[in-house]
Amino acid sequence: MEKTIEQNKMGYAKILPLILSMALPAMFSMTVQALYNVVDSIFVGNLIENGALALEATSYAYPLQMLLISVAVGTSVGTNSLISRRLGAGNQKEADSAATHGIVLGIFSWIVFLILGIFFSGPFLSLYGCDGITYKYGVDYLSVVLSGSLFVLIEISIEKSLQGTGDMIFPMLFQLSGAITNIILDPLLIAGIGPFPKLEVMGAAVATVIGQLVSAIFAVLVLFLRKNKIHVTFRNFKLNFTTIKNIYAVGLPSIAMQSIGSFMVFGLNAILSAYDAAVTVFGVYFKLQSFVFMPCFGLNQGVLPIMGYNYGARNKDRLLGTMRWGMVIAFLIMLIGTILFWTIPDVLLGFFNGDKTLISTGVPAFRIISLCFIPASLGIVFISLFQATGKGVRALIISFTRQLVFILPVAYLLSYIFNSSDYVWFAFPIAEIASLVLAFAFYINLKNKDFKKLDN
Asked: What angle do CA 315, 313, 246 make, to 5 degrees?
């Protein structure tokens, strides 16, 4: 089969310009995504009378929100990997089938989260012992975000499918349209400006869902009205369990890998709930660190299809060259993030209308946690390499050991020994360094065994 121009681009173009052309739109869109997550919390903290309690409630709700995104992104990463590998091998029909199945699996996932949103938002928050206004804010936020998750599940599925073909511009525009919509609606629905009702925390959730709806509509229109490198059709569609198996061979480890993060946040919230402002500090940190990590994840969206394509095409030199350039760029991003978290942590916390307790607790926390950024930059690219080559289980093991085997036990131990949140934060750099060592060991094994079978 004659290769398309886009496939030639991933197979033969100069690596660094290729990475930048494919990754920059994704990095931009992910940064915008981070922006509206942060703006969301800034509005909640500043426009609601009980802003501190509202921030605390959304911090407690965050693990289930993370679980939703984990399922959406994880399934779509499996779809992306399968599409790029099938295109690299010249199999258009199976690439099209993977894209169609990705959307269907997203709809099935929504049914699960709809049930969680309606029936389990309250019981989940009760696990923390939440009550009163914090409980109310948390239920308001979670029930809306989870019940309306159909739109984000569909949009992310289409986004990742197009990225698997090398198309990074339209996925960026999908994210941008939703982010702008959310940012505009946030203050209107939270504070009840003009004709809009004052919904407080629920307003932030409603604005998020409407933004996701706008992104999903845009994505569906582009998918079906524009000529793409993949063709999705539901005419005579039948589930192909081989395709589902191939998607989840990478997707399930990716879902589990990212879901582990939600369990980690849940566990850390439980540990930190014993200390004043610590849960809120951790929640604010998780919002702000997305400005550092999201560009790296956007970078991975650019390098993953390149690595997957060249792995399918058996081109080891381009595969490894892409990985090395990815690590250099990720390192530079994380270095900038580390500098910011060390030099202006008080300014960053001040955006959230933080009181003296939040500032005094948050400044040392930000500086300590940010020590994990640089080792994380290398680990993120290693994980992307394993996903691109169909070794999703290795990515899962790395995330599992970092976030459950290392972070939670170390955090609990430090809390128990020192009875202070000041030392709990050291669990992050300790865990990141340990998991990087494991990732490097997996890489050496992959290089010595699987890569030797590829043509140079």
From this structure: 125
- Tell me: the pLDDT tens digits for 59-87? 888 888 888 988 998 898 888 888 888 88
**d(C-alpha 8, C-alpha 22), whole Å:** 14
Nearest to 403 by CA among 66, 86, 24: 66
What is d(CA 413, CA 409) in angstroms, rounded to the nearest whole number?
Answer: 6
- In this prediction, residue 455 carries a pLDDT of 57
Which whole-number Å values give the CA distances from 209 to 206, 298, 300, 428, in the listed order? 5, 22, 26, 31
Residues 6 or more apart in contact with residue 195 via CB below 8 angstroms = none
Positive or negative CA dihedral for 408, 414, 420, 423?
Answer: negative
Rounded to the nearest angstrom, the gap between the alpha carbon of residue 182 and the centroid of all alpha carbons in its chain is 18
Of 250, 385, 391, give the one whose Cα is nearest residue 326: 385
pLDDT confidence bin for 209, thresholds 50/70/90: very high
Phi first, then psi: give them for residue 315, nearest 5 degrees. Answer: -110, 90
Token code pair at residue 396: 């899962």
Decide: 166 and 13 in contact? Cβ < 8 Å.
no
Q: In Å, how far from its chain's centre is CA 280?
A: 20
C-alpha–C-alpha distance, residues 271 and 248, integer Å = 33
> Torsion angle, CA of 432/335/73/44, rounded to 10 degrees?
100
Contacts of 437 (CB under 8 A, 6+ apart): none
Q: Which residue has the tokens 């004052």?
A: 198
Asked if residues 334 and 296 have their Cβ atoms less than 8 Å apart, the reply is yes
The b/e string for 273-288 (b: 16+ C-beta within 10 A; e otherwise) is eebebbbbbbbbbbbb
From CA 55, how far away is CA 285, in angstroms rounded? 12
Angstrom distance (rounded) from CA 259 to CA 400: 9
As beta bridge partners, residue 315 has 455
Q: Helix or strand or coil: residue 287?
A: helix
Q: Which amino acid, 103? A: I
CB 72 within 8 A of CB 157: yes
Q: What is the pLDDT of residues 356-407, one digit of tens each?
A: 778 888 999 999 999 999 999 999 999 889 888 888 788 878 878 888 888 9
Q: Which of 289, 353, 370, 367 is nearest to 55 (CA)?
A: 353
> Which percentage of the chain shows pLDDT scores above 90?
38
Q: pTM of the predicted model, to two decimals? A: 0.76
* pLDDT per position as a tens digit, 104-157: 999 999 999 999 999 999 999 988 877 788 899 999 999 999 999 999 999 999
Q: What is the pLDDT of residues 9-49, one digit of tens each?
A: 777 788 888 888 888 877 887 777 677 667 778 888 888 88
